[in-house]
Design goal:
By secondary structure, the chain is an alpha+beta fold. The chain has 4 helices and 5 strands. The N and C termini lie far apart (48 Å).
Length: 176
């Protein structure tokens, strides 16, 4: 899309829960998963179609269960090993020329980790002191680290339907 991207990873390992051991995906409606997420799961399927991927058991011994079951004709696979997820993420980053800065947590000291120009985030500062300037910042942390450090308002939990006149809001009173 003509943009330059840098991924700032606070640890030495890319991928968070996905590459750290959570390899069974909770899925309600598989058809609702699209975009980059679907591409990931399709690459998981492609990975496990290679005989070399089966080092610890044979494919006929593998059994996925419950909502994460992968049907034989599916293009995607919903369970995977952390090592497979890590290899897929690295492949995607290589293909798209995305640089990764490892071991660079956001400096969470008050006023230290976020540089603002007016209401806009202009730069992040890691604990190393390195500054990362950009036009757009995406907070993909588990707990909204960037959002909290930048001072934006946020909420924990779901709002009631009356707050924004949303009949399908997260909190419903008529379900009692």
């Amino acid at each position: 899309m003509g943009c330059a991207v840098v991924l700032i990873e606070p640890t030495a390992r890319l991928g968070g829960l996905t590459t750290g051991g959570l390899g069974a995906t909770d899925i309600g409606n598989k058809a609702a998963i699209g975009g980059l997420a679907r591409e990931f799961y399709c690459r998981v399927r492609k990975h496990y179609r290679q005989p070399a991927a089966w080092r610890w058991q044979r494919p006929d011994e593998y059994q996925s269960r419950g909502q994460a079951t992968t049907d034989p004709d599916e293009e995607a696979q919903w369970t995977f090993e952390p090592s497979a997820a890590l290899a897929i993420f690295r492949e995607l980053l290589r293909e798209h020329g995305i640089a990764v800065e490892y071991d660079e947590p956001l400096d969470r000291r008050p006023g230290a980790g976020v540089r603002r120009e007016g209401r806009r985030i202009a730069a992040l500062v890691g604990t190393s002191g390195r500054e990362y300037r950009g036009q757009v910042f995406i907070d993909a942390t588990y707990e909204g680290d960037l959002m909290a450090a930048s001072g934006v308002s946020y909420r924990v939990g779901r709002e009631g339907e009356a707050e924004y006149s949303e009949t399908l809001a997260g909190a419903r009173r008529d379900l009692d």
